[in-house]
Design brief:
- By secondary structure, the protein is α/β, with parallel strands linked by helices.
- It is built from 11 helices and 12 strands.
- It has helices at 3-15, 18-25, 29-43, 59-86, 101-116, 129-137, 175-179, 208-220, 233-241, 251-254, 285-305; strands at 48-49, 56-57, 91-97, 120-126, 143-148, 157-171, 199-203, 225-230, 246-250, 260-263, 270-277, 313-314.
- The strands form 2 sheets. Strands 3, 4, 5, 6, 7, 8, 9, 10, 11 and 12 form a 10-stranded mixed sheet that branches. It has a two-stranded antiparallel ribbon with strand order 1-2.
- A hairpin with a 6-residue loop joins strand 1 and strand 2.
- The radius of gyration is 24 Å and the shape is elongated.
- It starts with a helix and ends in a 12-residue tail after the last strand.
């Protein structure tokens, strides 16, 4: 198999259109189409169902593209291993980051990373956790920084930075906020059944956080009264602080708020804040160092910001680099 040809076919599959693929590859459409036709003649079968704007893979095409991604991934892994041996710094990686906390982490850590690897660049791209997992599985993203529950993880490598509890947030004016006693340094518990008639603000359907909160309501046998849905976890605290509703809020978005009341559920639901990368990929020395710096950042951040001895906890070895696999 010709590696350049593999790249061409994968790009057509990604773009679902030969003209768009040609633009991204900086070659003419006719040249790309000739490459495709030659390959299909050699294989004795078409790789795509052709329509004007939406080319879909045939069964043969699915096999070819899946194998092509694996081969190209092995090539990238080999090149990264060689670059590590040679000490090459002229490299570029893509990083998926969870909106909100991801940007905060990246802007703090990246300058330190560049001091050690001045020739290595990392491009952050904000996207959902599910999108990151999908791109990593397809070898389109080098590394992901995401928030995810155990049951939502796919067949990739995960390096957990810390496990974060999901709290129930009530307006400070809510009767339960005033009636439930609090011990300094602790988050009181509350049963979800006490809030079954209350309106809630929740993350949008299809998000990893919404998957978790839907499971919480389902286990309690409660159908939530959804007043608002949002795509920004940071907005939940604002809705709650206005006195309009209750909400579920990850610890990160609660640490600097004093205008909402936090409660733990008896089950202490949580998710992992983690890095994710393909099982077929090699984790290079620069990316290992980036993960180490990020682990260090979050350890210090939570040490300074936590006003309580809650149930969340960092990973047991926050500064350790994850194992590498091919």
């Amino acid at each position: 198999m010709d590696l350049k040809q593999l790249e061409y076919i994968v790009k057509i599959a990604d773009e679902k259109n030969v003209s768009r693929a040609a633009e991204k590859l900086f070659i003419s459409q006719s040249a790309l189409n000739q490459q495709l036709l030659k390959l299909e003649k050699d294989l004795g079968a078409p790789l795509f169902f052709r329509t004007r704007n939406n080319w879909q893979l045939t069964e043969v095409g699915e096999i070819y593209v899946r194998t092509a991604r694996e081969i190209l991934g092995l090539k990238e892994s080999a090149y990264n291993q060689i670059a590590d041996v040679l000490g090459s710094e002229s490299r570029h990686f893509t990083l998926g980051i969870a909106p909100g906390r991801g940007i905060r982490m990246f802007t703090h850590v990246y300058p330190k990373f560049l001091e050690k690897f001045p020739g290595v660049s990392i491009s952050p791209i904000e996207m959902s956790s599910y999108r990151q997992q999908s791109l990593i599985a397809d070898e389109k993203l080098d590394l992901g920084f995401l928030t995810i529950g155990d049951s939502q993880k796919i067949n990739s490598n995960y390096h957990t930075i810390y496990s974060e509890e999901i709290f129930v947030a009530l307006p400070t004016t809510h009767p339960l906020s005033k009636s439930i006693s609090r011990t300094p340094g602790q988050i009181p518990e509350i049963a979800l059944s006490a809030l079954q008639e209350e309106p809630f603000v929740l993350m949008y359907p299809g998000s990893s956080c919404r998957f978790l909160t839907d499971a919480i309501f389902g286990e309690a046998g409660i159908t939530p009264n959804v007043l608002f849905e949002t795509s920004n976890a940071g907005s939940i605290a604002y809705f709650v602080s206005s006195g309009l509703c209750c909400g579920f809020i990850p610890e990160f978005y609660a640490l600097e708020r004093n205008d909402i009341s936090l409660f733990s559920l008896p089950s202490h639901p949580h998710w992992d804040v983690a890095f994710c990368y393909s099982k077929r990929s090699y984790l290079s020395k620069p990316l290992k160092e980036f993960i180490r710096l990020c682990s260090e950042y979050w350890t210090e951040y939570y040490r300074q910001k936590r006003p309580y001895s809650g149930n969340t906890h960092e990973s047991e070895h926050p500064d350790s680099a994850p194992d590498e696999t091919l």
